[in-house]
Write a structure and sequence with these properties.
The protein is of the alpha/beta class and 521 residues long. It has 2 domains: 125 residues, Immunoglobulin-like; 361 residues, Glycosidases (TIM Barrel), CATH 3.20.20. It has 11 helices and 27 strands. Strands 2-5-8-9-10-11-12-13 form an 8-stranded parallel barrel, surrounded by 6 helices. Helix 7 runs parallel beside helix 9. The structure holds alpha-L-arabinofuranose.
């Protein structure tokens, strides 16, 4: 096989693109869909969410309390609840994040008036009144019909505290903690599958070295018991970004004592100084963001290669339990509350990331975007006047929910590429495809190109006797466009029909900077 160096390839692509430009104003890309080669299921947990006691994620966002003037269902904001139901949230991680390693669950049970207060040291020093605790969280998961993912305190909590929390939530017998739960109004144990043993234990979760945390994990996990048919899936606190040594040490020293190992990766310009405004950026910044976001694939591959060395059968899952964009906080908002707006650029980070995750589900079994409401790359923004905004990222998650638990269909994609600031190379088209349990094929396409439309030719293959393809498209006039309480529908999906099928070939005309999900029948 002849290997063409990347620089030459870019040159060739650019030369072809220039020729194409003289013939037509439109770019083109080709996809071959292997509808007959689908074998892996895309776990629905790849579309997971994360809710931390941070800013207005919990208080004001999800929870307003029964006595609020804002319409609520048992204390949960009714508008937010309904919007989340429409998203089919598969799993929700709570209570942090960094908050988890300072959280003492016993402060959040029993009569609300008697719950002690605490300082939320990680997030602006806000006073936490513990009115949203274990019952409020697990009941929310039941309302949303999603799996709870509990992050337990290892950094500042004891083994006994964690062990008792597990008993309180999941024991159905005549046990002391199950009886305390009954006294607090909940008879039946909850189903709690996912248990995180600490969070970012290399940083806010205790500033530990991996060797020390590995031993702590083994100790804590020993006492996280399975009660009455509840089977815990224990997740070790994993690496951030490019810290491959953490993964190596954990795989070596913990191995099959863990069911999952987490990973955090944020699309962020850097951890010190300004991260850039969420709504003010250049086209150059936009392409840089696409490059940084797509680099997650390389990071996943490298962590997986280490895991493969120790676990050839892939019994230990990689859990990307924090990901998404991280911009400067919106001017005028509380410092440390990480409230940021969300533009079409964020929508692309969502679609491109989900395309990557769908490709790696042999090892990657969960991903939780940070965070669900009012924090970082959120689905929803709320205000204290009862206003609610669905973000462009929300719309991508809604358009992509068809891929949850569907069979992944491999594709080959040829498209133009562009070298961006920092030397990363960004393809101008991203795509993913799946087949639902009912046999319906869905294809999601992103035209990353900020200026040019794309004609995408999709070879559907002989097996797929499709005659129509239509769906929804998310785009906007400008990449910086976003939804506000005054103008909530600036960026929202519209019906999309720019398709033609002829003899097994689907042609799709995608406008510049657009994201589409198609139903192919
Ligand atoms: O999501 C915000 C914070 O980012 C989390 O609390 C922490 O785990 C990560 O550093």
């Amino acid at each position: 096989m002849i290997t063409i160096p990347m620089k030459t390839r870019l040159f060739i692509t650019a030369a072809f693109a220039a020729t194409a430009l003289t013939l037509s104003a439109q770019k083109s890309a080709t996809i071959t869909l292997h509808a007959d080669q689908g074998k892996d299921i895309i776990p629905k947990e790849i579309y997971g969410q994360f809710a931390e006691h941070l800013g207005t994620c919990i208080y004001g966002g999800l929870w307003v309390g029964e006595n609020s003037a804002i319409p609520n269902t048992q204390g949960y904001r009714t508008d937010v609840l309904n919007a989340l139901k429409d998203l089919a949230v598969p799993v929700l991680r709570w209570p942090g994040g960094c908050f988890a390693d300072e959280y003492h669950w016993m402060d959040g049970i029993g009569p609300k008036s008697q719950r002690p207060k605490m300082v939320n040291n990680n997030w602006g020093g806000t006073i936490e009144d513990n009115s949203f605790g274990t019952h409020e969280f697990l009941n929310l998961c039941e309302l949303l019909k999603c799996e709870p993912y509990i992050s337990a305190n290892v950094g500042s909590g004891s083994v006994e505290e964690m062990a008792k929390w597990v008993e309180y939530m999941t024991s159905d017998g005549d046990s002391p903690l199950a009886n305390l739960r009954r006294k607090n109004g909940r008879d039946k144990a909850w189903n709690v599958k996912y248990l995180g043993v600490g969070n970012e234990s290399w940083g806010c979760g205790g500033s530990m070295r991996p060797e020390y945390y590995a031993d702590l994990y083994r100790r804590y996990a020993t006492y996280a018991r399975n009660y009455d048919g509840n089977r815990l899936f224990k997740i070790a606190s994993g690496a951030s970004d490019y810290d491959y040594n953490w993964t190596e040490v954990l795989m070596d020293r913990v191995g099959h004592r863990m069911d999952g190992l987490s990973l955090h990766y944020y699309t962020v310009t850097g951890w010190s100084g300004s991260k850039g405004a969420a709504t003010k950026f250049s086209t150059d910044d936009y392409y840089w963001t696409m490059g940084k976001c797509l680099e997650i694939e390389d990071v996943i591959k490298k962590h997986c290669a280490i895991m493969d060395k120790y676990d050839k059968d892939k019994r230990i899952a990689l859990m990307l339990d924090e990901w998404g964009t991280w911009w400067d906080e919106e001017p005028g908002t509380v410092r440390g509350h990480l409230y940021q707006q969300n533009t079409l650029r964020d929508a692309f980070v969502a679609s491109l990331s989900l395309d990557v995750f769908n490709r790696h589900t042999d090892r990657l079994k969960m991903a939780n975007i940070a965070q669900i409401v009012n924090v970082l790359q959120s689905m929803i923004l709320t205000n204290d006047k009862g206003g609610m905004v669905l973000t462009p990222t929300y719309h991508v998650f809604r358009m992509y929910k068809v891929h949850q638990d569907a069979t992944y269909l491999p594709i080959d994609l040829q498209c133009e590429k562009r070298e961006v600031r920092d030397g990363r190379v960004v393809p101008m088209v991203s795509a993913t495809a799946s087949k639902s349990k009912e046999g319906i094929v869905h294809i999601s396409l992103s035209n990353i190109d900020a200026e040019n439309a794309q004609e995408i030719t999709i070879n559907l293959g002989a097996d797929l006797k499709a005659t129509t393809a239509s769906g929804e498209m998310l785009t906007a006039k400008n990449l910086e466009d976003h939804n506000t309480f005054e103008r909530p529908d600036v960026v929202k999906p519209v019906p999309f029909k720019e398709t033609k099928i002829n003899k097994g070939v689907l042609k799709v005309k995608l406008p510049a900077k657009s994201i589409v999900t198609l139903v192919v029948r």
